[in-house]
Amino acid sequence: MFRISLIGLLASLALAAAPAGAEPATAVLGKDFSFPNQVAGLPAKLSDFRDLQINSFTTSDGVKLAYWEAGKGRPLVFVPGWSANGAEYVNLLYILSKSYHVYVLDPRNQGLSQRVEYGARIARFSTDLKEFSDHLGLETADYCGWSMGASVIWGYIDLFGTKGVRKLCFVDEPISIVAHADWSETTRRDAGAIAPSPEPLIAALNQAPPAHPSADDPNLLSRLMLRDSPAFANSEAFANAVISNDPKALKRVMYDHLTNDWRDVVVHKIDRPTAIFTGEWSANVPSQRWAQSVIPKAELHVYSKAEQGDHFLMFKNPQKFAADLQAFLDR
Question: Does residue 75 surpass a pLDDT of 60?
Fold first, then answer.
């Protein structure tokens, strides 16, 4: 959820219009990239991932959104969290594209997608997701949302239903980040609420992340800055090299995101097989357990601390996450 890439070697790519047609990622980015760590089963260089392409489409309100894709077969659509982008999914794209046609949509104001001053609300992001699915001509697909990306999928279901959805995956997103004043402690815990109002959370975005975090610190920003996973260090280095985020543009959606309460959607509108992922380092475990309890036949995966079970588990342990997700999707 809390990630801002402030270093970008190719800043002009992110600020310009997204590419007009599908091209190899190396061609779109204008250079190759060597990953800092050699990880078995993952590419050593971007050019090793020959199937990876970057494409774009234009939304009904005139915004060019970039998307990353690879593979063939049943469609699997990833929706990134706040400030995130397809570059961070490079390892998951590489692994899962061997079995699926995998897509990662860069939301407006994120990744390689266009920066605009309008549409900064989850409902518009959800509409963008629907228009993306229509652009691809998807009759049905599997959808996986991480962090705020889960909220975008909940908004999609709220607005458009689940007709085009085969299976769902949600990764470590509270059901309501901000608590209502009249909620009991139990309701706050079940929803995952961590603050009484958005203001302190928005103020926290202006704080610099810890430069030397402790490996035992459960704080979300500390978990982000830890590079204790070679695969995560690779994907973060790649994202930092090819994406230049605009913090001001990113913050436009945050107030709306923080104030949404998705309990009614989670309880009444999710009628597809669902997998939920969280980890022992995350403060969201109680809300994820509650979500599993109210979604019919939902399954819950709680990664241990040794399995990199924090908010970034799918990037820190991509091999395990990909295997667990594929097992769920193929059942």
Answer: yes
Instruction: Give residue 309's Cα distance to chain centre.
Output: 16
Question: For the whole model, what pTM was predicted?
Answer: 0.93
Q: Is the separation of the CB atoms in 288 and 280 below 8 Å?
A: no
The SS3 call for residue 171 is strand
- Residue 21 confidence (pLDDT): 60
E strand segments, the chain: 23-24, 53-58, 64-70, 75-79, 101-105, 141-146, 165-171, 274-279, 299-303
**Are 110 and 128 in contact, with CB atoms under 8 Å apart?**
no
* Residue whose entry in the numeric block shows the structure tokens 């509270």: 174
- Place 29 in a pLDDT band, splitting at 50, 70 and 90: very high
251-265 burial: b if 16+ Cβ within 10 Å, else e: bbbbebbbebbbbeb
The mean per-residue pLDDT over the stretch 267-283 comes to 98
Q: Name the residue with tokens 């991480």.
A: 146
Asked if 120 contacts 253 with a C-beta cutoff of 8 angstroms, the reply is yes
Rounded Cα–Cα distance for residues 208 and 221 (Å): 9
* Half-sphere exposure (Cβ direction) of 203: Cα atoms closer than 13 Å: 5
What strands lie across the sheet with 299-303, from one edge to the other?
23-24, 53-58, 64-70, 101-105, 75-79, 141-146, 165-171, 274-279, 299-303
- Half-sphere exposure at residue 131, Cβ-oriented, CA atoms within 13 angstroms: 19
- 17, pLDDT greater than 50: no
Segment 289-318 shows an average pLDDT of 98
Distance from chain centroid for Cα 51: 21
User: What does the pLDDT read at residue 205?
Assistant: 83
Q: Please enumerate, as own/partner, the contacts of 27-32 that have beta carbons within 8 Å and a separation of 24 or more.
A: 28/54, 28/112, 29/54, 29/242
CB 252 within 8 A of CB 227: no
The domain defined by 11-330 folds into: Rossmann fold (3.40.50)
CB burial string 188-213: b at 16+ within 10 A, e below: bebbbbbeeebeebeeeeeeeeeeeb
Polymer length of the chain = 331
The span from the CA of 324 to the CA of 198, in Å, is: 34
